[in-house]
């Protein structure tokens, strides 16, 4: 395996031998096509005219005035489908088309990646099947309906904790048996090489746009960039353009309900799952612990290997926000700015408010998705 599959000691390709050929096929196809002018032109066309890029960098005036900093929101919630996920699904579905695949499979937690995959599958006429933990199917009924409406088949997974981890397991089992005709469209910067690199590259458009926009708005780079971290795709997407700069990068993990959490970088240990070496929430025997977050998209026991590397090299800091604080931020952004954020994004908003009150400055928050999908969860939690 090439050194490109590692971020320091993290990452790699820890998979059954049967998966090595499709991963090598994918790596070679991506390396061949990623700088191809016609591929880049076609991808850019779809991102602009179908997904709705570039997204605005919005100055949140009311939030800023209340908390004493300049807070900007990168509005990925305004993309088609309501989340940043579409950047990656269009990229990978187009790659699958160039590879001659006729079918795509995916896993999803909050449903945002599933909806974005269903859109891309429909767009490129690819048969689409999506694995989803049975608990998430119940939590995200609206997104399940949207996926079906878009022509995808949703397959509930009843094993394990019935959440994202188990959906990934089932999708990998499917791919073992079907890779000759099927592309596994992973939705975050997780999994065996080359997936963490491919997903990061397709999501890095967020950060490069932000960099250009904040320089135009402020004449300088931001002091701090904040993003929520489950698997970590939206965070890597915005961090990547600032890694070489003197900009503070903060990832926000889900602190859950005080009993269980999904904060693998703050509470986990090094281990191997889903084909990669990274940090995971494990018991003393190395088995994955049950996780919890009010935000289904953060409810994963591990994190992408590049985040593990950024943490260990101290290039990025990773903090924890509880369900309660995320809910408070969900309400506050809705009332102050007229923007209902996804509960995932509300974790990042909560920490940005804390930073603003502590030290001010220019803060950019990646608003990774909109909160329509979370309305019923929030209603129940808030007793509204």
UniProtKB/TrEMBL annotation:
<dbReference type="GO" id="GO:0004834">
    <property type="term" value="F:tryptophan synthase activity"/>
</dbReference>
<keyword id="KW-0456">Lyase</keyword>
<dbReference type="InterPro" id="IPR036052">
    <property type="entry name" value="TrpB-like_PALP_sf"/>
</dbReference>
<feature type="domain" description="Tryptophan synthase beta chain-like PALP">
    <location>
        <begin position="51"/>
        <end position="369"/>
    </location>
</feature>
<dbReference type="InterPro" id="IPR023026">
    <property type="entry name" value="Trp_synth_beta/beta-like"/>
</dbReference>
<protein>
    <recommendedName>
        <fullName>Tryptophan synthase beta chain</fullName>
        <ecNumber>4.2.1.20</ecNumber>
    </recommendedName>
</protein>
<dbReference type="InterPro" id="IPR006653">
    <property type="entry name" value="Trp_synth_b_CS"/>
</dbReference>
<dbReference type="InterPro" id="IPR006654">
    <property type="entry name" value="Trp_synth_beta"/>
</dbReference>
<comment type="function">
    <text>The beta subunit is responsible for the synthesis of L-tryptophan from indole and L-serine.</text>
</comment>
<dbReference type="GO" id="GO:0005737">
    <property type="term" value="C:cytoplasm"/>
</dbReference>
<keyword id="KW-0057">Aromatic amino acid biosynthesis</keyword>
<keyword id="KW-0663">Pyridoxal phosphate</keyword>
<keyword id="KW-0028">Amino-acid biosynthesis</keyword>
<dbReference type="Pfam" id="PF00291">
    <property type="entry name" value="PALP"/>
</dbReference>
<comment type="subunit">
    <text>Tetramer of two alpha and two beta chains.</text>
</comment>
<comment type="pathway">
    <text>Amino-acid biosynthesis; L-tryptophan biosynthesis; L-tryptophan from chorismate: step 5/5.</text>
</comment>
<keyword id="KW-0822">Tryptophan biosynthesis</keyword>
<dbReference type="InterPro" id="IPR001926">
    <property type="entry name" value="TrpB-like_PALP"/>
</dbReference>
<comment type="similarity">
    <text>Belongs to the TrpB family.</text>
</comment>
<feature type="modified residue" description="N6-(pyridoxal phosphate)lysine">
    <location>
        <position position="85"/>
    </location>
</feature>
């Amino acid at each position: 395996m090439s050194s490109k599959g590692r971020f320091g000691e993290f990452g790699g390709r820890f998979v059954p031998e049967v998966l090595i050929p499709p991963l090598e096929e994918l790596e070679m196809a991506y390396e061949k096509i990623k700088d191809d002018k016609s591929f880049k032109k076609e991808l850019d066309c779809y991102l602009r005219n179908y997904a709705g890029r570039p997204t605005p960098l919005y100055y949140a005036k009311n939030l800023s005035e209340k908390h004493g900093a300049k807070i900007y929101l990168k509005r990925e919630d305004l993309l088609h489908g309501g989340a940043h996920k579409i950047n990656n699904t269009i990229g990978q579905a187009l790659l699958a088309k160039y590879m001659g695949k006729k079918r795509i499979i995916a896993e999803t937690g909050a449903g945002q990646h599933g909806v974005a995959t269903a859109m891309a599958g429909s767009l490129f006429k690819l048969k689409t099947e999506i694995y989803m933990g049975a608990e998430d199917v119940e939590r995200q009924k609206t997104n399940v309906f949207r996926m079906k409406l878009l022509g995808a088949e949703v397959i509930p997974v009843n094993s394990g904790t019935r959440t994202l981890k188990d959906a990934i397991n089932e999708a990998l089992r499917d791919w073992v048996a079907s890779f000759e005709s099927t592309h596994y469209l992973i939705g975050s910067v997780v999994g065996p090489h080359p997936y963490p690199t491919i997903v990061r590259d397709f999501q890095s458009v967020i950060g490069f746009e932000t960099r250009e926009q904040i320089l135009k708005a402020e004449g300088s780079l931001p002091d701090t960039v904040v993003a929520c971290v489950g698997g970590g795709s939206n965070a890597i997407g915005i961090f990547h353009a600032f890694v070489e700069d003197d900009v503070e990068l903060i990832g926000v993990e889900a602190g859950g309900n005080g009993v269980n959490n999904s904060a693998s970088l703050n509470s986990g240990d090094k281990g191997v799952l889903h084909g990669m070496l990274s940090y995971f929430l494990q018991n003393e025997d190395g088995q994955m612990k049950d996780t919890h977050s009010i935000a289904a998209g953060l409810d994963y026991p591990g994190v992408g290997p590049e985040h593990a590397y950024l943490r260990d090299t101290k290039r990025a800091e990773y903090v924890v926000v509880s369900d309660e604080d995320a809910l408070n931020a969900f309400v506050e952004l809705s009332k102050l700015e007229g923007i209902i954020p996804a509960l995932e994004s509300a974790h990042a908003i909560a920490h940005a408010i804390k930073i603003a009150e502590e030290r001010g400055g220019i803060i950019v928050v990646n608003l990774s998705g909109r909160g329509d999908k979370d309305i019923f969860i929030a209603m129940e939690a808030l007793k509204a």
